[in-house]
Each structure stands twice: as C-alpha cells, then as structure tokens.
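Contributing new records

If you add data, match the layout below exactly. Sequence lines come first and carry their own label; structure lines follow with theirs. Keep one chain per record. Anything else will be rejected by the validation script.
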Amino acid sequence: MPAAIRAEKLNKVFGDTRAVIDVSFEVQTGEVFVVMGLSGSGKSTLLRMLNGLLTPTSGTVYVDGVQLTGLKPRQLREIRKQKISMVFQHFALLPHRTVLENAAYGLEIRQVPKAERRARAYEALEMVGLSGWEDHLPTQLSGGMRQRVGLARALATGTNILLMDEAFSALDPLIRREMQDQLLELQARLAKTIVFITHDLNEAMRLGDRIAMMRDGRIVQIGTAEEILRNPANEYVAQFVQDVDRSRVLTAAAVMEEPVAVLDANAGVQQALRVMRERQVASAFVVSGDRRLVGVVRDEAVAEAVRNGADSLHRLMNPRDVVTVRPDTLVTNLLTPSAQSPVPLAVVTDDGRLRGVIPRVSLLAALGNGYHIEEVDAEEVTAEEVPS
C-alpha cells in the first residue's frame, strides 16, 4: 500500500524567506507522525502544504498515492472532504452553535443528511467524553472541553487522516496531559493516520510513533523517541533532548541485552554450573525448547546441588527470583523491581518467551545522559552479579 502521506522535496518561499527547505518524508497508515520544532522552524507551514491550504513553491505532496500538487481547487476540496480533517490550536468553534452542531459541522459542509450527521456527531462526542453536553454553547465549556469538541468534529467526518496543528498548546498543563491521554486512547481504538505539530519535546515523545525534528525550515532528524534520545543526529538535537526524563521515554526493549547464560529446561546441574562459571555470572535463565521462560537458577544453589549429587534444575528454581516485564514497559516502572530483584529483570513477550534481560548496571547506564549501554565497563558490575 502507498504511504498515507508522502512529501517529496517540499520547498516554500515567502518573499525572501525560505520557510520550508527540501523536506521529504512518508507517513504510514495508522501512524502518529509528530513534527516538532521551535517557533519559526516551518512546521505549521509544512502542515498546510500537506492538505493543500498552501501551494508548495516546489516539490510534491501525495495523499494515499494521489498527487495533491497541481489539482484544481474543486478536486482539492473533494480530497479534503473525503480524506483529511484538521484540529486547530484555538478550537475554531462556531460560538453561536451548540456542541452537537459544531461536532456535525464538517458533515454539514459535505451535505450529509441531518439525521445521519447528528447521529455521527453524537457518536463522536461520546468518544471524546462529552455525552450530555450536546446542547451547550462553546462559551459554557472549559478550554479542554472545547478542544474535545474540535477533536469530535474531526472524528465525525470519518476521514482517515487527522492533521493537528499545536492542538493542545493553548491548554494548561494538566488539561493538556488529559488530552494527550484522550488522543492515545482514541488512536488505540481507531488507528487514524495523524500528523501532529508541536513545539513541546515531551509531548512529541509521548505521542509520536516517529518524530521529525525541524530547524530553520529543514528536517534535521526523523526517528522514534528512543532513537532520537539515544542517537541524536547533531549537536542541536542533542541539546534539545539533554533534559528529557529518559525513564519516561525509554522502554525495556530499548535497554535490554541478550542474556549471558541461558539453559535448556532439560539441562543438568553440572552443565548449569559450568555455563555460569564460563560466563562469569551468578544466575542463568532456564527456557523451554520454544524459548518460553521456565525460571532462573542461581550459582550457590546449583553448586550445592552438584556437591549433593542432585541433577535436576527444576527443584532449584525459586519463582520469587524471577521478575518479568513486558518489552514496552517504561524504564521508570523498572527501577523498583530491578532494585528488589536478586537477578536481572527478564523481558518476556505476551506468550512468555524470553526476549532479553536487564541487569541493574545497564538500567542505570541507560538513564545517564549521553551513555550507551555498550559503553558500560564490565568492572562496574556489582559484586552480587558476578560469582566469586
């Protein structure tokens, strides 16, 4: 399938000012693509070229494989009606119309029959948590509620693409956070294609599947929040991300490592002890043939079993020794379990397969500004993680 949106070498010049310079990217269907930059970086100009509100000085925009650039005004309006909705920073509600009428306005423009547009507007308002407010006027609503009406209006049209221009920046921090939560919940249900403009890096990293960082009209880096945080493309991006709370961006999948010692569930205790001594670790994870995590054994228990002539690993596994986490668990939620666990955290999939492990030293290294996990010196490993 073609990308939902594709921009090729877009440029926009206003007089002597180059607002957008040689910008190219693709937004995949169902993706939240965040364009992030300071005021004057060109992000809003770029957004308006994506739906034809501004004509590029040069370059091309495609929506679902259809070239927007060069379309006649009537054709362009039809594309907007069928495929693209906008959510604006300052709500853009009609003050003399009720919440329901505002939510249905996009459908009214498309000449959808009144009964159908009311039904679809009711449904959209319910999605954004405004059931019971249909007959109120915008002036009777808080800022957050008015923005929910704007979001409901975009959802009611049924378009697959939402363009959101600084949609939450006029809201106070608490309401802004609630709107971010609302958008993430709706996206999990509806899987829209969203291009979201913001100047707030924390918002970008919270919402975006991928982020395009803009500076002076150019895109300087495109990547996931983790990619940008761990591998900034240049000094400008590095300065931007240096104060980000990494614990609330990085996930277990980003900081995990390959386990040093993994044993088959049918292995004997002598083999287990040999593997741990060769790898210089104090514990080994035990998995089944399809790599489902069975448990963990520790070197002291295994050594004692060898001395006593025992040969089964299963009696040596203590369920309390294993702490499992999902790959998408945020690092901030790993700190306490890591501190309490006698062995590295086990990262497992939903069906119980072992994907990786997180030693405490790697977790701490990942939280340090500018550090990469592979840069941690082996001598920094704590004594409890290496057998004597």
